Amino acid sequence: xSLQENIKMVKEELNSEEKFFxxxxxxxxxxxxxxxxxxxxxxxxxxxxxxxxxxxxxxxNKITEANSALLKLQTDSTDTASLAELKNLSPTLHDAWLYLxxxxxxxxxxxxxxxSSKALIVNDLAKYEAAANPASLEEYASKQNAxxxxxxxxxxxxxxLNENKIDKARSVLSKVSxxxxxxxxxxxxxxxxxx
Length: 195
Known about the structure:
- With about 200 residues, the chain is mainly α.
- The chain contains 9 helices and no strands.
- α1 (about 5-75) packs antiparallel against α2 and α2 packs across α3 (about 90-105).
């Protein structure tokens, strides 16, 4: 190797070392400048993860306690302390329990009171159970997400047939969905009951 090549190689090595030190100094300045922000970010992430873990554990305990209260109610349905505990822990499960008891006991007052339930399924089923005449059944069926929509329409049509309102019954039966499992029944009613 010639002297020129050695000098060039040493210069390149010095340049690379200089660049390395320059980057190290820039990194050090950056760390000093944003040290508090980085520490705060790490602490915030740790607190967020910790809070999430505590929340999950709390929710699991709440579910376990609600299930325990429900089991107590299943063995003794008159246990008011367990009913109050269930209402406090899980209002939705509480409403489902009340609905089950109301349907079992055929308590229309209790069913009507559940029409305003926050539990959507209980609310919908209570509205269906409370519908006692063709008009209220049709009103129930007109709601977009009615669970028993087609069944309510058929039931309304049968009531109308019993009142000899054949044209109205035919109109109601025509609203039953073509994909419904009740289509065979609708066809029978249309053939024998409405014509």
